[in-house]
Amino acid sequence: MRVHVVSDVHGNSSGLAAAGEGADALVCLGDLVLFLDYADHSRGILPDLFGADNARALVELRTARRFEEARDLGRRLWEEVTGAGRSRESVIEAAVRKQYAELFAAFPAPTYATYGNVDIPRLWKEYAGEGVTVLDGQRVEIGGWVFGFVGGGLTSPARTPYEIGDEEYAAKIAAVGEVDVLCTHIPPEVPELCYDTVARRFERGSTALLEAIRATRPRYSLFGHVHQPLARRMRIGATECVNVGHFNATGTPYVLQW
């Protein structure tokens, strides 16, 4: 059995269309939407709306963890593009829908997917066609192994669209229970797995996920979220923990074979 796993697609629909080649199934760990490409400030919803120079300014503020200044700049920019009956929410939703239509059309069958922290879950059911199974706090059997899926991220200063509280996230982890492969968007709360060496900051990991790995001992814990982690893989007890990679940049899936 061969399964390809991707995360942090961020608009890479051309790579996604080829990601399932040679695999029995594709697993996607979320973050389909591209709001802003930190490597190319001309790509994404925000530069499309505000221009590349303003997008670059937002990147610099966020990278410096000057989140309040970034929000102030964002508010000013949004005031310039909204009006005439257009709300910020409606503008974002229209842009996200355009990306989702292209990305979901690129998914091969079968695909098993969960949400990332920049995704908008309520829209997925409109675009996930036949052959795409969306799971969150749920399990599925693939080739005789049980895969558990938990989507989204934890609350953070970045205030991305799908962030939830620690208790709600822990409840989804508990609902999955014992599995062979535990698939999440965010990593377990381990410093080496949570630190982004380019952004030079810690992203939020989950202590509930870490505790579940220690208690239930899945074969694999697969995740994304941290684009340039200090450590891409680590063994925690019997479990191989793997950051499957920043698919937007690499276009290469992680291969799981048994």
From TrEMBL:
Residues 1-229 form the Calcineurin-like phosphoesterase domain. GO terms for molecular function: hydrolase activity. Gene3D superfamilies: 3.60.21.10. GO terms for biological process: cell wall modification. It comes from the Bacteria. PANTHER family: CALCINEURIN-LIKE PHOSPHOESTERASE DOMAIN-CONTAINING PROTEIN, METALLOPHOSPHOESTERASE. This is Metallophosphoesterase. It comes from Streptomyces gilvosporeus.
